[in-house]
Design goal:
This protein folds into 2 domains: 195 residues, D-Maltodextrin-Binding Protein, domain 2; 204 residues, D-Maltodextrin-Binding Protein, domain 2, CATH 3.40.190. Helix 2 crosses helix 15 and helix 8 packs parallel to helix 11. By secondary structure, it is α/β, with parallel strands linked by helices. The chain contains 19 helices and 12 strands.
């Protein structure tokens, strides 16, 4: 899902021609909300826009667990922002609720949309209409600390290729010393785990979430294998005790601290490490399954959309068009080691970074579930998803945890 390159003259020319033939717009001050966890890449994009446009955007970061309710409430009261950037997984619920502006005709006429990554097209389409575009993309991958691999007698250039190998390598890394751990995950963070734990299951052939009452939930051998592997690593002390209560605050910092051997993460790690930890020797690979060659990733990141009945819709539509332009894709995303959402720009000078290429491969192999009630099934603090993980890993009841979570998910989807 990531691509990068600095030749955006064609995109600027296209934009200039389009503006020249369109009705001139008065400069407008626009408001935009972004979920807090995606504020950094969102800020990069908005700052780039503001540096080249008269219509300035004021960006406000909203806590992740408040954005869904806040957008729904503001749409009813008429206080919605002109633009909103949010986790792509909420598109089905927002579209069905009528909270977003229909962009179908605009995007159909936009040549840049033709090469937009299909996963973003799919998640933003409902009943034949399109309501948003990919804004700041991401995908989950597996990170490993090469220095710790060396100390443990492991080949620093050979990451784990199966779930079992994660366990085996984590065991050797833990043996380095009392303050070194083989593996890490945020045990109380439902979103973190759908991002980095569910792909281990999906890579092994499992189905996680039901789309409707006729679908299945938590189906496949890999569900149990992954949970049992996590449980074993927890019981063997390969994971820090602090992981059990981590709500996501240490999702990144635990690995960056240097005493964790292996951890799931996202492509966002590349830009962070380049800026703040340029000497950290680490690698990225695709999240593996049960057998060598089985890989997957959770296609994540944010979409940008226009809340329904916005006050500055015409100016907001300009921004949506710009998001797909060469300038935004290359100078805003690619230049900052963030994947582009246009496949025709995948082979660019910024994308030659091997780690970026890994994220592009993960994007191609990744999945994104198109489901309603995602917050209830996954992202809430008491969801069936996170309760299953905690019950199986920390309490030890793997079979019971899966059975209970499956029943609860199916009850939610039948609403």
């Amino acid at each position: 899902m990531k691509t990068m390159l600095p030749r955006f003259g064609r995109g600027l020319m296209t934009c200039a021609l389009a503006l020249a033939t369109a009705t001139p717009l008065m400069a407008e001050d626009l408001t935009m909300w972004v979920r807090e966890s995606a504020a950094d890449p969102g800020t990069l994009m908005v700052n780039l826009w503001n540096s080249t446009h008269d219509n300035k955007i004021t960006l406000t970061a909203i806590p992740d667990n408040q954005l869904v309710t806040k957008l729904a409430t503001s749409s009813q009261t008429g206080d919605a922002p002109d633009l909103v950037s949010f986790d792509l997984i909420y598109m089905p619920d927002f579209m069905k609720a009528g909270l977003l502006t229909d962009l179908t005709e605009q995007l159909a006429a936009d040549g840049n949309y033709a090469t937009h990554i299909q996963a973003y097209k799919d998640i933003a389409t409902y009943e034949g209409k399109t309501f948003g575009v990919g804004f700041t993309p991401d995908v989950s991958v597996l990170a490993w600390n090469k220095d710790l691999f060396r100390q443990a007698g492991l080949d620093p250039e050979k990451p784990p290729q199966t779930i079992a190998e994660i366990h085996e390598m984590a065991t050797k890394i833990r043996a380095i010393g009392p303050d070194t751990y083989g593996f890490y995950f945020s045990g109380s963070c439902p979103g973190c785990n759908i991002f980095v734990t569910s792909p281990l299951m999906v890579a092994g052939g499992a189905k996680i979430l039901p789309k409707d009452a006729n679908d299945t939930a938590l189906d496949g051998e890999a569900i149990k294998v992954v949970l049992e592997t996590y449980k074993a690593m927890w019981e063997e002390g390969l994971i820090p005790e602090s992981a059990e209560v981590d709500t996501g605050a240490n999702f990144v910092s635990a690995f960056v601290g240097g005493n964790i051997g292996i951890a799931g993460t996202g492509g966002f790690l590349i830009s962070l490490m380049e800026r703040e930890h340029p000497d950290f020797d680490y690698g990225l690979t695709l999240l593996p399954g049960l057998e060598p060659g089985q890989v997957s990733g959770f296609v994540g990141g944010d979409v940008v959309a226009i809340p329904a009945n916005g006050k500055n819709e015409a100016a907001a539509r300009e921004f949506v068009t710009w998001v797909l332009s060469d300038e935004a894709q290359l100078e805003g995303l690619a230049k900052n080691s963030i994947l582009t959402t246009r496949t025709d720009l995948a082979d660019n000078e910024y994308a030659q970074n091997p780690k970026v290429q890994v994220t592009a491969q993960a994007l191609a192999a990744g999945y994104v579930p198109w489901v309603f009630h995602f917050a209830d099934m996954v992202n809430s603090d008491s969801s069936p998803w996170i309760t299953m993980l905690q019950t199986a890993i920390f309490d030890g009841d793997v079979d019971g945890a899966i059975e209970t979570a499956r029943a609860e998910m199916m009850a939610i989807v039948q609403r």
